[in-house]
């Protein structure tokens, strides 16, 4: 077993694993492309990073829940609404578990969803543009952690609360936790064609902590499974008080039953307040709408909708096998891994064999639903993924290893150390009927001596293993940004052919777009000035502006007239107290500038776009507040 900083073991094992064939397996020659995309969550960066596998090369950071000065996301006028919530503008998020949309149980490469843990939200990223196009806030939720996993046909993206809270929020004593606090499990409908999200219902569960979840598939399609801990319902010193019960639960939710109930008029609308933010690719602009109610369901009013499966002990990961037959609960404090059987669960439900109930929800008996246990597999299990050959792979945080075991026989086949303290792991198509058993990568919490030191702060480290054979083979270390929790991976050929190259100018409906240099202008409305500006290699139009005054609020609406792949232009002006803009071909973006000092101030393009990029600049004259200098603008002539 490995522990952090166990150098002796590390050297020998790395030496043994990394023979020359390992290097060949991850080598993607210059100019060649990777076989897989990996979308790795950024954790406290709030974003999502895109890597290639097997090379481990970083392609892009997609801003999702955090402002991103590299592109102006969350700074530009068009994208600020994306970060609007019921708590106001939130510039940061904690992103955890990306999951790719599916059709018939197989990843289809259309969208990727990711949850924000802190101020509960779910985002949808369009995989044609690799841009965040929608964010919905999740009300009645706190620590949105058992999220964001999709059902077989992306009927729903599901979000479960980690912390239970008073529902609706109210001013009561924390001591009233037991009974008064609720755990909301939210089923967010996804519109088939557009992907638009809308909360269909929230199931108001007992005040446990809901840690992770996964959908049923195949026979168990129509069900969703959530691990719980703190079934003790403690509100203080959880490290002790939430570790009392020998078993917590996996909650099994029959969402099809709940759909029927709703279709017959069930559930009630609860007043609520949550943001729904949508980005439009033609206007290149996001709008934020506040929603005022949400449908809530009391689980005790829908017979047959929810059952509790006893699961040792403070389980974290909740993973469903590709055939949908097994539900794996990774009990963090348990010696064994617990695997429940969907079939046995159905049988026990049919026979109405219950061991008791919690707040009116029937509890099945552990023995009745148990499929098997992987005994003494390791210490501190967190997450499990599956390959295409009937094997499962579980990460163990404390013993710092990945353990491969067989579904059905529950025997351990192989174990490999991770460097160090692994959290999640990913196999392409992990949450689907058809995982791809070529590579697995582990996302480690502690990096220590794996890379050159960079001061006290180190990037986390991912490790790529070849899992095509009986034994796992370590191939590669690569650094990851932020703190990756889950990652989703997909064959590149499901995504790359659809990737957009540029936005068509003819489809640009931005109200302040200038679609040619002839349309550029500067318009004053009181102390607000709108600059309709364009960029093309290698100038701005206009590039000389006079008649701006101290105290003005100047909106630079910049349209990039280029119609070719990979020719962005940037825009920055001295004293711009937000960020630059990076504008893609055919796109319009807006930055606000409020000049505070009289003078002649330059602006320039921030992206090295052509041989004459350094010539891509302009000047703005700012006069005193009471000046009567007239507004003038020009390109290629001297302002009179
Ligand atoms: S959780 S390991 Cu969101 Cu396991 Cu991170
Ligand atoms: Cu445009 Cu540099």
Automatic annotation (TrEMBL):
This is Sec-dependent nitrous-oxide reductase. PROSITE patterns: COX2. InterPro entries: Copper_CuA, Cupredoxin, N2O_reductase_N, Nitrous_oxide_Rdtase_Sec-dep, Nos_propeller, NosZ/Cyto_c_oxidase_sub2, WD40/YVTN_repeat-like_dom_sf. SUPFAM superfamilies: Cupredoxins (SSF49503), Nitrous oxide reductase, N-terminal domain (SSF50974). Keywords: Copper, Metal-binding, Oxidoreductase. It is found in: Cell envelope. The keyword Signal does not apply. One of its GO terms (molecular function) is nitrous-oxide reductase activity. The keyword Cell cycle does not apply. Its EC number is 1.7.2.4.
């Amino acid at each position: 077993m490995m522990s952090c900083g166990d150098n002796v073991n590390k050297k020998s094992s790395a030496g043994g694993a990394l023979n020359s064939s390992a290097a060949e397996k991850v080598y993607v020659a210059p100019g060649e492309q990777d076989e897989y995309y990996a979308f790795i969550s950024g954790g406290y960066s709030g974003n999502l990073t895109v890597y290639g596998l097997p090379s481990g090369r970083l392609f892009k950071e997609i801003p999702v829940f955090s402002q991103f000065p590299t592109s102006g996301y969350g700074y530009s006028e068009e994208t600020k609404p994306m970060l609007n919530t019921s708590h106001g503008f939130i510039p940061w998020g904690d992103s955890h578990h990306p999951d790719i949309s599916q059709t018939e149980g197989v990843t289809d490469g259309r969208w990727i969803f990711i949850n924000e843990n802190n101020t509960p939200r779910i985002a949808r990223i369009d995989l044609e543009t690799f841009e965040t196009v929608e964010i919905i806030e999740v009300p009645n939720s706190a620590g949105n952690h058992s999220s964001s996993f999709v059902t077989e046909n992306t009927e729903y993206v599901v979000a479960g609360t980690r912390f239970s809270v008073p529902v609706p929020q109210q001013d009561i004593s924390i001591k009233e936790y037991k009974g008064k606090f609720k755990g909301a499990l939210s089923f967010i409908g996804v519109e088939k064609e557009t992907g638009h999200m809308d909360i269909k219902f929230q199931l108001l569960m007992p005040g446990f902590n809901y840690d992770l979840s996964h959908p049923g598939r195949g026979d168990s399609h129509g069900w969703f499974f959530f691990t719980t801990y703190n079934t003790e319902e403690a509100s203080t010193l959880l490290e002790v008080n939430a570790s009392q019960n020998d078993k917590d639960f996996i909650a099994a939710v029959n969402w099809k039953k709940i759909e029927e109930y709703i279709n017959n008029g069930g559930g009630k609308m609860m007043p609520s307040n949550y943001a729904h933010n949508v980005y439009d690719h033609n206007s290149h602009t996001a709008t934020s709408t506040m929603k005022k109610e949400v449908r809530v369901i009391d689980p005790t009013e829908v017979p047959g909708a929810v059952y509790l499966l006893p699961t040792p002990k403070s389980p974290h990961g909740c993973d469903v096998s590709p055939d949908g037959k097994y539900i794996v609960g990774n009990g963090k404090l348990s010696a064994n891994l617990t695997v429940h059987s969907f079939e046995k669960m159905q049988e026990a439900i049919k026979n109405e064999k219950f061991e008791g109930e919690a707040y009116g929800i029937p509890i099945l008996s552990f023995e009745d639903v148990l499929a098997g246990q992987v005994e003494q597999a390791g210490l501190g299990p967190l997450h499990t993924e599956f390959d295409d050959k009937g094997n499962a792979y579980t990460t163990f945080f404390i013993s710092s290893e990945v353990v491969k075991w067989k579904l059905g026989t529950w025997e351990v086949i192989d174990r490999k150390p991770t460097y160090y303290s692994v959290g999640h792991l990913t196999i392409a198509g992990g949450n689907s009927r058809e995982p791809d058993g070529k590579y697995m990568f582990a996302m480690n919490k502690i990096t220590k001596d794996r890379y050159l030191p960079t001061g006290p702060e180190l990037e986390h480290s991912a490790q790529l293993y070849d899992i095509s054979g009986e034994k796992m083979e370590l191939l590669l270390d690569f650094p990851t940004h932020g703190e990756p929790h889950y990652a989703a991976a997909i064959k590149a050929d499901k995504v790359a052919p659809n990737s957009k190259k540029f936005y068509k100018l003819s489809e640009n409906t931005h109200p302040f777009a200038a679609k040619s240099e002839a349309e550029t202008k500067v318009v004053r409305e009181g102390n607000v000035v709108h600059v309709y500006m364009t960029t093309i290699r290698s100038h701005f139009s206009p590039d000389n502006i006079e008649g701006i005054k101290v105290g003005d609020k100047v909106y630079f609406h910049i349209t990039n007239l280029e119609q070719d792949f990979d020719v962005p232009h940037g825009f920055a002006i001295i004293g711009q107290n937000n960020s630059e803009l990076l504008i893609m071909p055919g796109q319009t973006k807006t930055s606000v500038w409020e000049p505070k000092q009289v003078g002649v101030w330059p602006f320039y393009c921030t992206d090295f776009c052509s041989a004459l990029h350094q010539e891509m600049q302009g000047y703005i004259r700012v006069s005193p507040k009471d000046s009567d200098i007239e507004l003038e603008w020009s390109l290629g002539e001297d302002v009179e």
